[in-house]
Amino acid sequence: MKSLRLTMLAGLALASGHAFASVGVPEPAPRDPAFIDTFREIVETDSSITSGSCTAVADKVEARLRKAGYGDSEITRFAVPDHPKEGGIVVVLQGRASDLRPILLLGHVDVVTARREDWVRDPYTLIEEGGYFYGRGTSDMKSIDAIWIDTMVRLRGERQRPRRTVKLALTCGEETSGAFNGAQWLSNNRRALIDAAFALNEGGGGVTNGKGIAEGGKLVVQELQVGEKAYQDFTLTVTNPGGHSSQPVPDNAIVTLARALDKVHAYQFPLQFNDTTRAYFTRSGALRGDETGRAMVALAANPADGAAEAVVNRDKMLHSLLRTTCVPTMVSAGHALNALPQRASANVNCRMFPGNSSEQTQAALVAAIGDASVSVEERTRDKPVAKAPPFDPAVVGPIEKLAAKYFPGVPVVPSMSTGASDAVYTGAVGIPTYGVPGVWGNPDGDGIHGLNERIEVRSLLTGRAYLYDLVKTYTY
Description:
The protein is an alpha/beta fold.
């Protein structure tokens, strides 16, 4: 996912006058100074692609885990020579049972760049204020990273080792398309090191009714992410001989590109459902209860129901959940004010529905444009096809059972992200990857990828308690 929680559930929480019937205020969880110290340390270590270092975060994580008792045989550091600041770490706590496949705790430690002059507070100082922790990465996703680190420390301190092996992989590169991506590198080069029956990742979590619990709000829903789209950029290019602008010709690169982009804008990819989105439309539509909710239920039952689709498509989030989407995001053209353009190019960003390849999407764009003079090229080669993990009762059951304990009356709903995360890489090599519930946020996104990013203190602490119990349920 891009880590921004671009899910349908945020849209539902914001629906005017219509939200889930069951809401809740979770009980406060205890505050552990050692955990807060871990969280503070990784938030205050800049790990952006421009000015920071993921390797520096991994250094500090390694020091904490060694202090907890992990040794050389249990810790693997990795990086590549041309990206020394984008290194990561894998830690393995060996289980007692050889017949149980491991579980993998997956997290990225890189963050989107933040500039001090734009923020109200220093983005790389953890500041607690008004019931929230502020700082870059507090929500995306150093909160879960800290929980995974803390979980590994606590498991090591248990009287008895878990029956199932637990692995932690903290990587870099999720936030920057085209950068060195640690999850992709591990999946392609060290598959055995991260082998697991399934992985737990970012992408799930709760949504409030518009205000944090600290502000008198309530938790509306907890989401379990079961699948996501795959991210791909395509470069559209038109070239001409150019010439003097005083003598225009019919064949103009800018005009040709503009026509192509207009066709991309008008093209709608065909509607698709998978198990996750069908379950979501059916269950959440029924809970929603408004015109859109009724249309969601009808469309899940009959995807050919054009009237229902027309209602659903009014919601940009729901529209995106039903298909691959492609949108122009950047344009570059011309070389002089007084010259005919020799080149015009544009970036078209696509979010591909699970099961759709870059090649299929590229072919659809070429057909929609219908002009051989416009080249359409993949920006990133060999992009894996997104694969939705199964609704495995062995995975989903404990999630739902513990959620009933920690978040009474709050429904757990399967979700598919319209964004993308590192799950696309682990899923591609046969490790089903789920975005876990636990921490929650507000529908406005809490500044993820933007200014003044934050996470509610109560969300972080309750998420820590829930996720630790969840990992123990899977492993003991």
